[in-house]
Specification:
Elements: E1 6-9, H1 15-28, E2 35-41, H2 46-52, E3 60-66, E4 101-105, E5 109-111, H3 116-119, E6 128-132, H4 136-140, E7 159-167, H5 168-173, H6 176-186, H7 193-201, E8 206-208, E9 215-216, H8 218-221, E10 235-237, H9 254-261, H10 270-309
This protein binds manganese (II) ion.
Residues 106, 108, 162, 237, 239 line the site of manganese (II) ion.
Length: 310
């Protein structure tokens, strides 16, 4: 069966994780080759050819579409997220009338199983299928697990936008992009950027998919190498700040991730491995230093306010 179009948004800074995600997708979905991949980029370059060449022969037909992100640069994103996150809002411009559905995937993922069941998922009369975000329940109980979640929009249920199965006719008919953009205009400091905007635009009109399709934050919770094949999620999403390709911070899935990356043209060179080793040593001391400077700043502030009162 044909799978896709499958959309990604990427920029040069994310080329290596993206190539790794694509490689995992291709390897886990061989019976659907050639995969229909469409990538939204704000600039192309040598890296796009390198990503393409990171796939086995015949695995995918990749189309690169340039998008204009200028209108979005004024909206802040989290420190580790670039403006290319807003690319999701351009998907409908790069589909044909024959495309009834589109699958959107973040680039910070690994695909570990066939996506056929996801592609066929029942959406009822909803605009999209997605996985509930981990903090949705906390918000409902008035808890804010991360300080930034305090300002997240209160919707019926809140989804994570890293994996979206989109019903294209409904997406257009319900003017999702227009509504999302209006939300961003009125709430430019919303903490999770276009994810917040999409949650507002699709409030009460999305279907909950099994956790299996967007298994978030496994970096810290589950050791993928030790999990048997059949228990691994279909899609692991490294949504936390700690990424398995960032060797400055210890995480238990770095080796598992790196084995997939090794099969791309972005495999780490000997020199990169040495640098990563140093970063790994520097990482903890950097954290200690950061803590030290925060503590001393706080102490200085306390002292200063006391002096003033006196
Ligand atoms: Mn992500």
């Amino acid at each position: 069966m044909s799978l896709g179009p499958i959309f990604f948004c990427c920029d040069e800074g994310y080329a290596a994780p993206f190539a790794t995600a694509l490689r995992s997708l291709a390897e886990a979905n061989m019976s659907n080759w050639p995969l229909d991949i469409r990538v939204l980029v704000d600039a192309s370059g040598d890296w796009t050819r390198k990503v393409q060449a990171s796939l086995p022969e015949g695995a995918a037909i990749i189309r690169w579409h340039r998008i204009e992100l200028e209108a979005f640069r004024k909206f802040p994103t989290n420190r580790h997220i670039s403006a290319s996150t807003f690319g999701r809002l351009f998907i409908e411009q790069f589909v044909t009338a024959e495309d009834k559905r589109a699958l959107y995937l973040d680039a910070d993922i690994l695909v570990l199983g066939s996506l056929e069941d996801l592609w066929r998922a029942d959406l009822g009369d909803n605009t999209l299928g997605a996985v509930r975000d981990n903090f949705d329940n906390d918000l409902k109980f008035g808890k804010t697990p991360l300080p930034e979640t305090k300002a997240a929009p209160r919707v019926t249920d809140y989804f994570n936008a890293g994996v979206l199965l989109i019903d294209l006719p409904r997406w257009r008919e319900r003017r999702v992009v227009e509504k999302a953009f209006a939300y961003l205009q009125n709430n430019p400091n919303t903490p999770f950027a276009d994810q917040d905007a999409l949650n507002v635009a699709c409030d009460g009109e999305w279907n909950e998919l099994g956790k299996h399709w967007n298994s978030v934050d496994f970096v810290e919770k589950i050791n993928l190498a030790r999990t048997p094949d059949d228990l691994r999620p279909g899609i692991v999403h490294f949504a936390a700040r700690v990424k398995p390709w960032n060797f400055a911070y210890w995480n238990q899935n770095a080796g598992f991730y790196d084995k997939v990356r090794d099969r791309t043209l972005f495999r780490r060179t000997f020199a990169m491995r040495q640098i990563d080793r140093l970063l790994r040593l520097w990482g903890p001391s950097r954290r200690t230093l950061g803590q030290f400077s925060r503590t001393s700043r706080l102490a200085a502030k306390t002292l200063f306010s006391r002096t003033q009162k006196a």
